[in-house]
Design a protein that fits this description.
- The structure holds two protein chains of two kinds.
- Chain A is an alpha/beta fold.
- Chain A folds into two domains: 2-151 and 284-320, 3-Layer(aba) Sandwich (D-Maltodextrin-Binding Protein, domain 2), CATH 3.40.190; 155-280 and 352-374, Periplasmic binding protein-like II (D-Maltodextrin-Binding Protein, domain 2).
- Chain A contains 16 helices and ten strands.
- In chain A, strands 1, 2, 3, 4, 5, 6, 7, 8, 9 and 10 form a ten-stranded mixed beta sheet that branches.
- In chain A, helix 13 crosses helix 14.
- The longest helix of chain A is centred in the first third of the chain and has 21 residues, at 2-22.
- The two termini of chain A are 38 Å apart.
- Chain B is mainly α.
- Chain B has helices at residues 2-50, 68-109, 114-122, 129-140, 145-152, 166-190, 194-202, 207-236, 239-244, 252-262, 266-291, and strands at 52-54, 61-63.
- Classes of the chains: A alpha/beta, B mainly alpha.
- Chains A and B meet through helix 4, strand 6 and helix 16 of A and helix 2 and helix 10 of B.
Chain lengths: 378, 297
């Protein structure tokens, strides 16, 4: 889809408007071609925007382009915060256009981009819908007042399982590492989620300063589970394929993924927030500092804070919706999802969700090294 | 006047000579420029990065000529370094065991099927390396035939698995680099003069002795080339360990990748890359010195 749009626009731009009208294109399409060079290049994670399998397009994006005439080149190119950042860092440092006008990264990594001055400051007058962002998400420590980043979705890490092998579900760390699951357990390569869940289970408050020893206790546990053959792999979103094939039967995974898997695989899987607490974080939209399309990018961002649009996206991606009023709008989109706590958590659920505290640069390097060591990578 | 003529004559000669002398360099120029830009410059950068240390801000480094980076890299990743060479050695060995009969059959016994068989050997290259390895995940995975057969035969229990094991990694490496072994072997076997074998038979050697004393020595260039072409890329591979292995089967390539992209420790990654290159170079030089390269094509 992404390639289709860019290729079509490229042809139009090259052929000029006269050629476009010769080809019998509508006025609307010609208008779109006129602004081709301003196509917003949107880098996001996979399965993170409503997608229509029949038309092979993203309905909310199609509507956006219809309404504004601004084409969007949507690319599912982010698969890991570290890897994506490492790939574009050289251009960011050289103050060059990185080829994306909107990037979506997790809170801790977004903080690093903001601190590194890699992102542009929003023009709030261009994003009037910012008023719809859930108030508590407006003042996260990474960006008080949200001048550089806005939440795309909230992500919960917890336990997921295949119903066939774990009919009672998994609600505690002991159940995850039950002997029956040995060798078929996978945990996330996102350190804050995997280690965060283990630390919560070990009774550590991950939202407040904790010592390196407490962190290492969790690493030791992870290492033991890997060494004893319980954990099969430490990996990113691809744990989904292993759940489907049956190579993994119990995992530490992300809330929305499991809903989407179930929609495609006749409800074979379950997801729960651990009794000892789950981790919560947000993925955030940012505009790279040297983006040549800042104004159009802001139009896209503004569009996704319209409650109706947000409800359509949330209905598909099943992650926590950051937009006030989306729950009411969901009545019209899909009434069955209105009471889905994984999209609209209630107070009791919020109490059980914790955000991993900010790490200093030295901590980030040493913790990440220890985590990679435990995963066999260092 | 005659002297003047003479003078111009030698000048022309000199010009022609120097042109002729320069010609090889002009012919070499594209290759040399290519190597300077894409080999020497990166190598220099790699060496320079390997002795730097963390500066202000994640991902920034300053040159401090810290050679201890190499010692740190070796001590922290000894296990993966040794494992890489173990797996590469095993994969090379298995590839040789599988390839030799295969290449022999294609060279001497295939008749009119020869070209078809050669195409079949090369056919996997029509598909991406990555996709072929992902396919192995499925072949050895829970829904694959292999595990079902092994479970049915009670060779594996219900809890056992094939993916995420050292076996899967070595099997993947062997498979992925098999054509690199088969093709040089075939090339050198195919060139053997069949009359040598007949002569060996005439001198009362049985089939086994002929194979041992005639065929194998004459195919040695193929063996040397094939083992090198398999061992070198296998030692640096990280795809197989990533997709088919578990945390206990990670190879040095995985460590380098994690240091570059996850930990953002460029000096450590650069040091490990250099260590890997130098180790392979030493191993290969020792091997080639023993095996000889006179007939290596």
């Amino acid at each position: 889809m992404a390639i289709e749009i860019s290729r079509r626009n490229l042809i139009k731009a090259a052929g000029g408007l006269g050629a476009a009208s010769l080809l019998g294109l509508s006025n609307e399409e010609i208008a779109q071609a006129a602004s081709t060079k301003n196509a917003v290049r949107f880098a996001n994670w996979s399965l993170y925007l409503d997608y229509d399998n029949k038309t092979k397009s993203y309905p909310t994006l199609v509507d956006f382009t219809k309404k504004t005439g601004i084409p969007v080149n949507y690319m599912e190119v982010v698969d890991d915060n570290d890897t994506f950042t490492a790939k574009v860092t050289p251009q960011l440092r050289l103050k060059k256009d990185i080829g994306y006008d909107i990037v979506v990264l997790t809170e801790w990594m977004a903080a690093r981009w903001i601190n590194g001055k890699y992102v542009a400051k929003f023009d709030d007058t261009k994003i009037p819908n910012k008023k719809n962002v859930l108030p508590f998400l407006l003042n996260r420590p990474l960006d008080p007042g949200r001048h550089y980043s806005l939440p795309w979705a909230g992500v919960i890490a917890g336990f997921a399982w295949s119903n066939q092998k774990n009919p009672k579900g998994i609600h505690t760390m002991e159940q995850l590492f039950a002997p029956a699951n040995k060798g078929k357990i996978e945990v996330l390569s996102e350190m804050r989620d995997t280690i965060g869940l283990i630390m919560l289970w070990q009774g550590v408050d991950i939202t407040k300063p904790f010592s390196g020893d407490k962190f290492m206790n969790a690493i030791d546990f992870l290492q033991k589970m890997i060494h004893d053959g319980y954990i099969r792999q430490v990996k990113g979103q691809s744990y989904q394929e292993d759940l489907i094939s049956g190579d993994a039967v119990a995992v530490i995974g992300w809330s929305g993924d499991i809903n989407q898997l179930n929609a495609q695989n006749s409800n074979r899987f379950g997801f729960a927030i651990p009794e000892s607490g789950g981790t919560f974080s947000t993925d955030n939209m940012m505009i790279p500092a040297l983006s040549p399309n800042k104004v159009n990018a802001e139009a896209v961002i503004n569009y996704y804070y319209d409650p109706m649009v947000a409800a359509r996206v949330a209905n598909y991606i099943n992650y926590i919706c950051p937009v006030a009023g989306a729950q009411q709008a969901m009545e019209k989109v899909n009434p069955a999802q209105v009471s889905n706590k994984l999209i609209f958590p209630d107070d009791a659920m919020w109490k059980n969700l914790k955000v991993f505290r900010d790490l200093s640069q030295a901590e980030q390097i040493s913790f990440s090294t220890e985590f990679q060591k435990a995963s066999g990578n260092a | 006047m005659s002297t003047a003529l003479l003078h111009t004559g030698t000048h022309e000669k000199k010009a022609v000579l120097s042109k002729k002398k320069l010609l090889p360099y002009w012919l070499l120029a594209p290759g040399i420029i290519w190597l300077v830009i894409f080999f020497l410059v990166p190598i220099y950068q790699l060496i320079s990065t390997s002795t730097q240390t963390q500066g202000y801000g994640i991902g920034t480094y300053v040159q401090t000529y810290r050679f201890a980076n190499f010692i740190d890299a070796i001590t922290s990743s000894k296990a993966q370094l040794i494992r890489s060479f173990e797996y590469a050695f095993l994969a090379t060995l298995f590839a040789l065991i599988i390839s030799y009969p295969l290449a022999y059959a294609v060279a001497f016994k295939s008749g009119r099927w020869k070209n078809t068989l050669l195409v079949l050997i090369v056919a996997p290259f029509f598909c991406s390396f990555l996709l072929r390895t992902v396919a192995w995940e499925q072949i050895l995975g829970e829904q694959g035939l292999v595990i079902k057969v092994l479970r049915f035969a009670h060779i594996l229990g219900a809890q056992d698995h094939l993916t995420a094991t050292p076996f899967a990694v070595v099997a993947g490496l062997t498979y992925n680099f098999l054509p690199f072994m088969t093709l040089p072997l075939y090339a050198s076997l195919e060139r053997i003069d069949i009359r040598m074998m007949e002569a060996s038979g005439d001198l009362y050697a049985n089939a086994l002795t002929t194979f041992r004393k005639v065929t194998v020595p004459l195919s040695m260039p193929g063996v040397v080339a094939g083992t090198l072409l398999t061992f070198i890329p296998a030692a640096g591979d990280y795809i197989n360990a990533e997709l088919l292995g578990n945390p206990g089967t990670k190879m040095i390539g995985n460590v380098i990748e994690a240091r570059y992209l996850e930990i953002v420790d460029y000096p450590g990654a650069a040091a490990l890359s250099l260590i890997l290159m130098v180790t392979i170079l030493i191993l290969v030089m020792a091997y080639v010195k023993r095996a000889g390269t006179e007939e290596l094509v």
